[in-house]
Amino acid sequence: MTDTITLSVGAAVGAGSMLAILLFAGIAMLALGLRDRARAGADQAMRLRRDVLLERSPAVAAVVRGDGRVETSRRLGDWLGGGDAPDRWDVLLAALEDVDAAALSDAVVAAQKAARPFRLTVRARGAARVLLVTGERAPDRLHAPGGALIWFFDASELQGEVERFAGEAAQLQGAFDALTGLIEAAPLPMWYRGADLRLAMVNSAYVRAVEAGDAADVVAQQVELVEDSGLGGPLANAAIARDSGEPQISVVPATVGAARRMLRVHDIPLPDGGTAGFAIDVEELEQARGGLKRFAEAQRAMLDRLSAGVAQFGPDRTLRFSNQPFGRIFAMRPEWLADRPEFDRVLERMREVKRMPEVRDFPTWKDERREWFQAPDAEIEESWHLPGGTHLRVVAQPLPDGGLLLIFEDRTEQVQLASARDTLLRVRTATFDNLFEALGVFAADGRLQLWNNKFRLTWGFEEKMLATHPRVDALAEAGAKRLANPDRASLIGQLVRSATVERKQRGGRAVFADGRHFEFTAVPLPDGNALFTMLDITDSRRIEQALRDRNEALEAADRVKTAFVANMSYELRTPLTSIKGFAEMLHGGYAGDLSDSGTEYTEAILASVTRLGGLIDDVLDLTEGDDADLERERVDLELLARAAADAIAPLATDNGVELALEVDGTAGSVIGDQRRLGQVVEHLLRHSLGTLEGGGRVLLLVDGDEAHARIVVSDDGPGLTPDEAARAFERFAQPEIARDGERALGLGLPLAKHFAEAHGGKIDLVSEPGEGTIITIELPRA
């Protein structure tokens, strides 16, 4: 029983387990069925969606198998115009234009055999539809070995846009090419930077400016046109332009073609994030701007130094500039002028300080002056007579910018000078007409400009003829008949031309037919004219002739006197020789022994005879004149001086005078007459001894140089007065300066001068009362 119960329980358990397994299997199968059902539904939905997408797709797929069969949809047949979907490759190609069919056939063959994808455009035969075809080898999943997968796109609607875009693209390409050529041909450097601000393109001018090989080298090496100045470098403005979207301009220095230039650099942002740039050489502009600025400053400085007042008004009629004389003339303070007052206010200020003409209707007068700003005339000029006697010359110049330039020139002094000039002209005319001389002023062209009554009356010209201002040749021809020698009339033209053309003063003389003598003179004047003067010298000619006749008479008398003195000197020698001979015989005892008194008397006679003989010789030497024969030989001056000193030494000893001799090594010798030169030195020594008292001193000095020898005799005697010194060398003047009854100044000095000059030398005497006398002779070596 127990076993039965146990078995029944086990069977029940087993049956229950089996039932449970079956239940679980059923549930699992139900779940799987439900899942498959859901998946099938999803697949069906997806298939429906794919069918819809394929129907709505702009492209139609076609599979071309290796055996020529085609798998495609009906839409392709509609596009090709056949209605049914083409099932054969040759049918599909037959629906296309011949050229397109051949191209598509070749492309499909290449895709089938070489797996080469393609893209081309074809047209349906007899239709306006355009199809875009892309293809490739059929994937393995299509199970079409040796086939090709082709997609057809209907591009009919886009073809017009494509053609339009192609035309626009061609136009844009042409414009781009033209712009590129323009940029390349531009003479100024131009460049393009990418968004990273690196150079991407430059033109030829840029390449030349940086002295690079070509544009590729510039881009590769990133050669910048502008050096890094330490303020962000050449990329600073480009970065600002890129980030701000605003163009940037800067003026920076750069080295272009080995020359330092100033460039105005423009950086312009572009829509692609890059920047374009170009540089303009403004070196000349900067220099011109600086020159204009310096010119304006120099002009204002110059205007301040002018004596005329200058005021410049702008287009808005406000004062833009005024110089210092303007403020001084119209008594306007600099601070008031610095506020740039208007034109009307300036005129009112002139009226307030009484620096404008007195007018009855000031508003109308002011309105008329306001019209100067639009005056059509290039220049307006007025004269203002101000209270107090001031004369102003006012010049108004309208400016191109609508402004006005006023110049105020103080003509008061000129007006006064003009008045004085008129007075001087009247005085000159009156003076001319009352001068003793005949005057005529000739212009540079030889025409007579001015003349006085003396000129007209002297020549006998008519006033009507002179009023035509004739030429000098016509005047000379008209006045020739008044001259004793009519040919001398040409002298007038010669003198005037010399003064006007050559600017030289010349003169001459002419004799009139009535016996009058005139002296002509032409003097160049500072203004280029010539002053012709005629001086009546008739009286002076008569006096001159009288003096000439008297001089000839005096010369004849002098010759007679000289001849008489010479003859008398020769005549005196005969008795003097006899007296000397008899005195020597008496002194020698030929007539018997003489007493002491007789011997003393004979010695006095001999001394007087000797002195008298010397005086006669001196007189003869003076009367011989310059024609005296001189011996020409070399004379040693040292020996000559010592011989003369030895000859005079006894006389110096007797008179108690110290005689000193100095001979310099440069004395040398001269060519001349030794006897006459010895006489010269002795005469000078005797003259000095004759002026001295006991205790005096006489110095004889001889020296010289290469060209001349010098003999100097000096003493410390009483000296000579200026009148005596001036007449010391005159013949027979004999001023009576005596010592012990003997003449101190006789014929010695005239003889010394005579012989010195005969040797080509010269003699000078320097003396002052109480200071002694110095006599110097210079003789040429040759």
TrEMBL record:
Histidine kinase domain span: 567-782
Domain of life: Bacteria
Keywords: Kinase, Membrane, Phosphoprotein, Transferase, Transmembrane, Transmembrane helix, Two-component regulatory system
Transmembrane intervals: 12-34
Cited InterPro entries: HATPase_C_sf (IPR036890), HATPase_dom (IPR003594), His_kinase_dom (IPR005467), HisK_dim/P_dom (IPR003661), HisK_dim/P_sf (IPR036097), PAS-like_dom_sf (IPR035965), Sensor_HK_Regulatory (IPR050736), Sig_transdc_His_kin-like_C (IPR004358)
Enzyme class, first EC level, given as a word: transferase
EC code(s) of this entry: 2.7.13.3
Protein name in UniProt: histidine kinase
Reactions accelerated catalytically: ATP + protein L-histidine = ADP + protein N-phospho-L-histidine
Pfam families the record matches: HATPase_c (PF02518), HisKA (PF00512), PAS_7 (PF12860)
